[in-house]
Specification:
Layout lengths: L4 E3 L2 E3 L3 E3 L8 H10 L3 E8 H4 L1 H10 L2 H4 L17 H14 L4 E6 L7 H9 L4 E5 L11 H18 L4 E5 L6 H10 L4 E4 L7 E3 L4 E3 L10 H11 L6 E5 L5 H10 L3 E4 L1 H6 L3 H15 L20 H14 L9
The structure holds flavin mononucleotide (FMN).
């Protein structure tokens, strides 16, 4: 069965890419992921705050925030909490490149335009086959409007894009008022790929300890739906290749993402739960599923469920929303 696809201009034997995570931290694990059939791997992110952690330390401890509101200090990551500093990151990237033959995608988690260009170049020089730019940004400042944030994000992407010759993908959040427009703007800024979507790790409040608690929940397949919706909306409308991240756990999840229009599906939670060899199981299941459903290849069904045949996507959305609300007939017995 032909599972071949193309992502960021790179031909890949199948759509399973290991997403940015600690799965890439250990060389033996990376080799196991490759052996199990991963077609590419994204390294965990290098965070801009690793470069400016002295400033962060100053903000938390010297600027008085940590002292005047002791509890508020727990909202800030410890300056030492970041996994890999820039030099260590680049060394690790070189080692991973040396250890495997599959494409290795380095991930930058930036928050300001400009400062990242040098690191993008260094990552490219260290052998990264592509970059994934993670634009995670939550602005809590009411004086900063959406247009400013969007302009800065586009400036960042353009600047990084112009500073390297390797492909650049952008990992996006769903929380734009006009996501389809933003996605097209990133496409116009020459992003080679759109990775949909970043997950937000929202803090909870420990009411006894008066601290913010951080916990990382692994996903399940229910998270896929938001991604399917937007990939189906973008498929056929942007030049960039499309990656789904979030809620990809099974062969059927991959089939759905591909039908929506995804070129690749990134997996993290499923592999953290089940281990690297699970990729082999999913690939076998996917082949079997395609045979059973009489598809001649994976790419034959790419985008067949996208929105391109819907003339007015906004009206379609509203109609579906209304129908969904009106279809409620009460709980099934046993619910
Ligand atoms: C432990 C852990 C660490 C992660 N680290 C990163 C990271 O460094 N950079 C990044 O862009 N995403 C990171 N992610 C997010 C994943 O790349 C992925 O987008 C998310 O987990 C959704 O995919 P999943 O449903 O397959 O887990 C991390 C996720 C987990 C669970």
């Amino acid at each position: 069965m032909n599972l071949a696809t193309e992502y960021l201009g790179m031909p890949l034997p199948n759509p399973i890419v290991v997403g940015a995570s600690p799965l890439s931290d250990d060389l033996d694990t990376v080799k196991r992921l490759e052996d199990a059939g991963a077609s590419a791997i994204v390294l965990r992110s290098l965070f801009e705050e690793q470069i400016t952690r002295e400033q962060m330390a100053e903000f938390v401890h010297l600027d008085g925030h940590g002292e005047s509101f002791a509890e508020a200090g727990s909202f800030f990551p410890s300056p030492n909490a970041f996994a890999l500093g820039p030099d260590t990151y680049l060394r690790h990237l070189r080692k991973v490149k040396h250890a495997v033959r599959i494409p290795v995608i380095a991930s930058l988690n930036g928050s300001t335009p400009g400062g990242w260009i040098e690191y993008a170049r260094l990552m490219a020089e260290a052998g990264a086959d592509a970059l994934e730019l993670n634009l995670y940004r939550l602005s809590g400042n009411p004086d900063v409007d959406a247009a400013t944030i969007e302009r800065e994000a586009l400036t960042t992407v353009k600047a990084v894009r112009e500073s390297v010759t390797i492909p650049v993908a952008v990992k996006l959040s769903p929380f734009y008022t006009a996501f389809a427009h933003m996605a097209r703007e990133f496409d116009r800024a020459y992003a080679d790929g759109l990775v949909v979507f970043n997950r937000f790790y929202q803090p909870d409040i420990d009411v006894d300890e008066l601290t913010a608690t951080r916990s990382l929940h692994l996903s399940d397949s229910s998270e896929l739906r938001l991604r399917l919706h937007w990939i189906a909306m973008l498929s056929g409308r942007v030049r960039a290749s499309l990656a789904v991240t979030g809620g990809v756990h099974t062969a059927v999840d991959i089939a759905k993402a591909t039908m929506a229009g995804a070129h690749v599906t990134q997996m993290v939670s499923a592999l953290l739960k089940r281990g690297p060899d699970y990729i082999r199981t999913v690939l076998t299941d996917l082949e079997q599923w395609l045979v059973e459903h009489e598809w001649e290849s994976l790419s034959a069904m790419r985008g067949n469920m996208n929105f391109s045949r819907v003339p007015d996507a906004d009206a379609y959305e509203r109609a579906n929303y209304m129908l969904m609300l009106q279809s409620w007939r009460g709980l099934d017995p046993g619910d």
